[in-house]
Amino acid sequence: MKIGKVPENVLKRSVIRQLHTKRDEVLVGAAVGEDCAAMALAEDEMFVISTDPITGTAQDIGKLAILVTTNDLASAGAEPIGVMLTILLPENFEEPELKKMMQQLESACKDVSVQIMGGHTEVTRAVSQPVVTVCGVGKAKKGQLVTTGGARPGMDMIATKWIGLEGTSIIAKEKESELLTRYTADFISKAKEFDRYLSVMGEAAIAVSSGVGAMHDVTEGGIFGALWEMAEASSVGLEIDLKRIPIRQETVEICEFFDINPYELISSGCMLMAAEDGNTLVRKLEKAGIPAVVIGKATAGNDRVIVNEEERRFLEPPKTDELYKVV
User: Which of 3, 21, 105, 191 has its CA 20 to 30 A from that of 255?
Assistant: First the structure.
């Protein structure tokens, strides 16, 4: 396609006609010439807004773009309503690829009942692979917003599902040929399928109804980054048992193969929570089929400690995600 805005006929044919999921709250949605979207809220509700780019992979970019943003909204206790998309495409990108991307985006939105309300699609020399930026809009009842900074000393720290899910899935897809030199096709197939665990909307809804103190979806920087960010936002210390942090064997082995740290690997699908009674929340999550475990406690002061049997080490501020060492 040529540099500049995607032509109107392409926009209608391969973008807008792929959009089918609708929400009653959306008053003005995606259309040619519309630069803004509009949505209505009840008097006792508030807007919750989040934005994220997807730059680390071109595979499944539509699915990841929607999941990452709706997870952010869910971690704030909000119900995702709609998204605005900015899609930047390299010059060698063809219309059938754009149509396929939009179908993937729409399918991901349908799965979580979110409407694509509008956005911008452009071909530019500034990128060498597709870049999708999503601005998500959700709603929450007034007084029920959950923040990353809501942890208090004495609260239990909880991790849901497993760390490294997103990073493991991406690496298994992007580096399959290399991994096949050591692992079976079945092993790699299981790792690829970790992307089915990436939504945290289920655990977020249960946690909000249980009065959770703080939530943070574990994305770039991995579980170590998320722990630091929650502690920093909450002005608390931490005492975390490394051996209690949940991790799949596939993640362990793939990280060993590429000599990367799984605790600093992008981990969408894992939600970090702080709650007064973590064991009760874990039981509620497990009753709903969502694995979860108490991994430590928030403490008074600023010491953020990771305990591994007799060894104690201080947590450090987030670093560049380990994924970028591989893909």
Answer: 105
Tokens of 288: 């709903």
Which DSSP category does 58 fall into? S
List the beta bridge partners of residue 133. Answer: 53, 86
Backbone angles phi and psi of 209, in degrees to 5: -70, -15
Six token digits for residue 239: 């005492």
d(CA 150, CA 201): 19
How do strand 38-39 and strand 271-275 relate by DSSP bridges? unpaired
Helix H or strand E encompassing 139? strand 131-141
Consecutive H or E run containing 194: none
pLDDT digit string, tens, across residues 144-188: 889 999 999 999 999 999 999 999 999 999 999 999 999 999 999
C-alpha dihedral (180, 169, 305, 272), degrees to nearest 10: -160
50/178 Cα distance (integer angstroms) = 36
pLDDT tens per residue, range 49-103: 998 887 766 678 888 899 999 999 999 999 999 999 999 999 999 999 999 999 9
Q: How far is CA 262 from the centre of its chain?
A: 16
